[in-house]
């Protein structure tokens, strides 16, 4: 069950018209591709995707699940929006409530175990190994954890475990963390057990119907067997502009921890129909990822360009993410920025700055929203988020 | 929109003209333009024109073609009704490997008989263009034609003369003379090996072919019936690349470095579809230097590349210098290799420091799977 209904409000203009899992990532993917590909590569071929916030783009993207080989006679991918019942209708009130409302869907497949996933993380993980662990420990719930630097641990949900890996305490964003095992938002439940707790939780009016806040704590109170499954590898929550940008930049590092080239663990996506990209005569491209359908005639440094992007002669793109079909016109300069789909940066415009240009150590990322036009010669300062057009600047 | 027509594609015609490329594949499955096979253009044109039934006639070496086409879903031709049909030889116990076009068509007469539609659009795979068949089909219907030949006006040698067929017509485009292998330098209307044919005309022609053992569609049917039947030509005004020599194969790929050709070929009447491979986008390293080149997904580039076409999954090592070359899928080029005017087939490995050089009019060809 893949929870994909979150608004992702910290991504600002990028999630204005799309759910977070549908946000483009890595030159040709959407965030949800990683989780969906993990599912199929782990042998999970029945996947329910719970949607709620701005689902149109996500629904269209998932379609019948064919790009992930999830168009099946039996099982396959199911998009599960909230729906009307005989006695009224409810939005999904929380993660647990979303699953509760789809109990009948899960019961149709009558599984022994349910894997609970979220659509906003970048990682490659074999859930079948985690399921083996779950069975071997005879657990009621297994939560995958990753070790984070202890000084950052207070930003995560932290699992405190005994020597066997059994969790005795769960602390959401603790001020003084006792361990550095952070939850990755990947849970395996024994379905019968979870089903009972979902029903109990639903009847509790004071509950926020959330896995982290309610279900796990009440299972812990009842001394159910909850285990932490250690995961070593690349894992990134891309819930903020900063982390989304950083995670894209990670792909450019020569020692990149997430290998997208592995033929045995491909990340699948719905491919656009585009010809190969064209690199012009006077262009310069260093340390960058460029997708098909681009036409590059300017200079690109340390950047990720999605399909169909045009960069005109004299334009410079540095340390940036340029999403599908955006257009950087002649001599424009885009630095440390995220340019969303179909945006257009006018001639001689400047978007964002380099650290050394403005004498700052740390500064934010500039974000230009979907379809926004930045007029010629305009300047967009660092750490700005823009979702309205900027007019051309006339110099008199 | 669905047309009152169905398509027939000949996948093996003219294989012998580019023997290097067709030793392990059909004409139809020759890689082109960084991520395509020649048949993608014909199939996409048919799909973009609204055809929903297409038969692909095969003869030999068609493993790579079957692998590429699959169920036809990439061209939206995986259907319950109609869709894509692969028509290998040996359709019945009497039939075998055909020698010429008419024999091939006789071999699939069952397919033709069972298809609905009054018009048949037949095409070889040796022409690269983006064309909407509904436009010539409209003229075909208006002209009450039996056959409409799709042509391109140019000197015969531009399109390669060995097998060229020129169609001479009156002002109203009615063909009154058909010249096989015309003089090379004269400008004429050269056939692009695409025809719109009335189904009844085709069925009659096949009956004739069977009873009189006729072989050649152009000589025995079109040329013989030139006066009796209503044969028209229709001139295509766009870019048409013809793959009939290695040199033309090279040129036609290099034509893609021109933005006019790219816009026309990839977008004019619709997209060109191809098999999806789930490659990651191309990655440029810290020492990459690329100019005037076409680069597909899955490439990793550390060296220098100019005036070249790189297919999916090609890797170029640091210090390598690739000029004027076509490098097909999965080829690995080690560091400090120098290439100039080279066509490298799939899955080749060029080791350190090798220097390979051809010439514009005679590009060097390295066969599939070689290690240099």
Topology of helices and strands:
The complex is a heterodimer of chains A (396) and B (372).
Chain A: E1 2-3, E2 24-25, E3 29-30, H1 31-41, E4 46-50, H2 55-62, E5 76-80, E6 84-85, E7 88-89, H3 95-100, H4 103-109, E8 113-118, E9 121-123, H5 127-136, E10 141-147, E11 157-161, E12 167-172, E13 181-190, H6 191-203, H7 211-221, E14 226-230, E15 235-237, H8 241-250, E16 277-279, E17 284-286, E18 288-290, E19 295-296, E20 299-301, E21 304-305, E22 310-311, E23 316-318, E24 321-322, E25 327-328, E26 333-335, E27 337-339, E28 344-345, E29 350-351, E30 366-368, E31 373-374, E32 379-380, E33 385-386
Parallel strand pairs in A: 1-4, 1-8, 4-5, 10-14, 16-19, 17-20, 18-21, 19-22, 20-23, 21-24, 22-25, 23-26, 24-27, 25-28, 26-29, 27-30, 28-31, 29-32, 30-33
Antiparallel strand pairs in A: 2-3, 6-7, 8-13, 9-15, 10-13, 11-12
Chain B: E1 5-10, H1 19-22, E2 31-32, E3 36-37, H2 38-48, E4 53-57, H3 63-69, E5 83-87, H4 101-107, H5 109-114, E6 119-124, E7 127-128, H6 134-142, E8 147-155, E9 165-169, E10 175-180, E11 187-198, H7 199-212, H8 217-223, E12 231-235, E13 241-242, H9 246-254, H10 259-267, E14 282-284, E15 289-291, E16 293-295, E17 300-301, E18 304-306, E19 309-310, E20 315-316, E21 321-323, E22 326-327, E23 332-333, E24 338-340, E25 342-344, E26 349-350, E27 355-357, E28 364-366
Parallel strand pairs in B: 1-4, 1-6, 4-5, 8-12, 14-17, 15-18, 16-19, 17-20, 18-21, 19-22, 20-23, 21-24, 22-25, 23-26, 24-27, 25-28
Antiparallel strand pairs in B: 2-3, 6-11, 7-13, 8-11, 9-10
